[in-house]
């Protein structure tokens, strides 16, 4: 069977469904970071994300018909008069011609990212579901493909001013370079649909990242078959294989995590492999 067609067991890392980093990293600063992030997110401008995952083709097949509307699917079906409203809400309405509507794609990883006004309008007017309604880039990536490269990148000045402890903690992690660092927040009763970031069989290795959940209350889970029980990750720091379908279960309160993508320092992967072999 083609690896890309494999469903069922978790791909995982080194024979484990994910790598628990609780005993590998010093997490003593996470409580202070939680205080800082809670305050900081109240001060900065955040954005929505994840509204076009179905159109991007990365959502688990059994979650495609769950009733939650995808932004690009909705845009493709908008009557001309509604699309004109959508265009008028862009940063530069003159850039769009209704006669060329079929040539435009909007949202994450497209030439035309949504602005906040468009996101709200799609949600309020047409019921589009954005899973992450609180998204803040501490360190911005240009495209999805460059999220592991730190070349020419730096933490945003605002991020250093508002989230100094958080940035310092991230810089202390075992990365040789960081290509992206993002706070992903989910509002009460929202969920993140099952999706995968990398198609199995395409990447030569497991993409390197660390996810931090300072409160330990974001029910991030892995599930590669609809009949399997969701495997909830309870660790406050972990590395997961983003070739596995993953999502976040709903809860009646706000939750967030920080995802850092990059390249690990020499020797770190080998140490984790050795721990996994010992069953540590």
Number of domains: 2
Topology, number of strands? 11
Please tell me what the overall shape is: globular
First-residue to last-residue Cα separation: 32 Å
Can you tell me the CATH architecture of the largest domain? Sandwich
Overall pLDDT score? 94
Question: Can you tell me the CATH class of the largest domain?
Answer: Mainly Beta
**What is the count of DSSP helices, taking H or I runs of 4+ residues?**
8
CATH superfamily of the largest domain: Jelly Rolls
Instruction: Give a short account of the largest sheet.
Output: 7 strands, antiparallel
Radius of gyration: 19 Å
CATH topology title of the largest domain: Jelly Rolls
Strand content: 15-25%
What is the H/E order? EHEHHHHEHHEEEEEEEEH
Instruction: Please estimate the helix content.
Output: 25-40%
- Low-confidence segments, given as residue ranges, are 1-6
Walkthrough of the structure:
With 280 residues, the chain is α+β, with helices and mostly antiparallel strands. The two termini are 32 Å apart. A hairpin with an 8-residue loop joins strand 7 and strand 8 (231-232). It folds into two domains: 10-48 and 132-278, Sandwich (Jelly Rolls), CATH 2.60.120.10; 71-126, no CATH class. The model is unreliable at 1-6 (pLDDT under 50). It has eight helices and eleven strands. 25% of the residues lie in helices and 20% in strands. It has helices at residues 30-43, 53-56, 71-77, 80-88, 116-126, 157-162, 164-172, 268-278; strands at residues 18-20, 47-49, 132-139, 175-186, 192-195, 209-212, 220-222, 231-232, 237-240, 246-248, 255-264.
């Amino acid at each position: 069977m083609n690896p890309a067609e494999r469903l069922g067991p978790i791909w995982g890392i080194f024979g484990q469904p994910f790598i628990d980093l609780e005993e590998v990293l010093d997490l003593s600063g996470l409580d202070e970071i939680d205080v800082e992030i809670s305050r900081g997110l109240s001060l900065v401008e955040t954005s929505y994300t994840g509204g076009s995952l179905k159109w991007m083709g990365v959502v688990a097949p059994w979650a495609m018909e769950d009733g939650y509307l995808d932004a690009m699917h909705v845009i493709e079906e908008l009557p001309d008069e509604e699309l004109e409203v959508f265009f008028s809400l862009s940063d530069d309405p003159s850039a769009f011609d209704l006669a060329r509507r079929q040539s435009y794609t909007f949202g994450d990883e497209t030439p035309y990212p949504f602005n906040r006004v468009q996101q709200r309008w799609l949600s309020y007017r047409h019921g589009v579901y954005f899973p992450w309604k609180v998204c803040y880039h501490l360190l911005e990536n240009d495209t999805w493909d460059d999220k592991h490269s730190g070349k020419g990148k730096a933490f945003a000045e605002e991020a250093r001013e508002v989230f100094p402890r958080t940035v310092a903690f991230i810089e202390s992690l075992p990365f040789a370079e960081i290509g992206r660092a993002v706070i992903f927040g989910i509002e009460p009763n929202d969920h993140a649909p099952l999706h995968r970031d990398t198609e199995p069989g395409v990447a030569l290795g497991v993409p390197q990242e660390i996810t931090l959940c300072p409160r330990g209350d974001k029910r991030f889970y892995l599930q590669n078959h609809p009949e399997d029980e969701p495997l909830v990750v309870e660790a406050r720091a972990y590395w997961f294989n983003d070739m596995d379908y993953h999502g976040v279960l709903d809860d009646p309160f706000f939750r967030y995590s920080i995802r850092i993508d990059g390249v690990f320092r020499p020797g770190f992967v080998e140490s984790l492999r050795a721990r996994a072999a010992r069953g540590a």
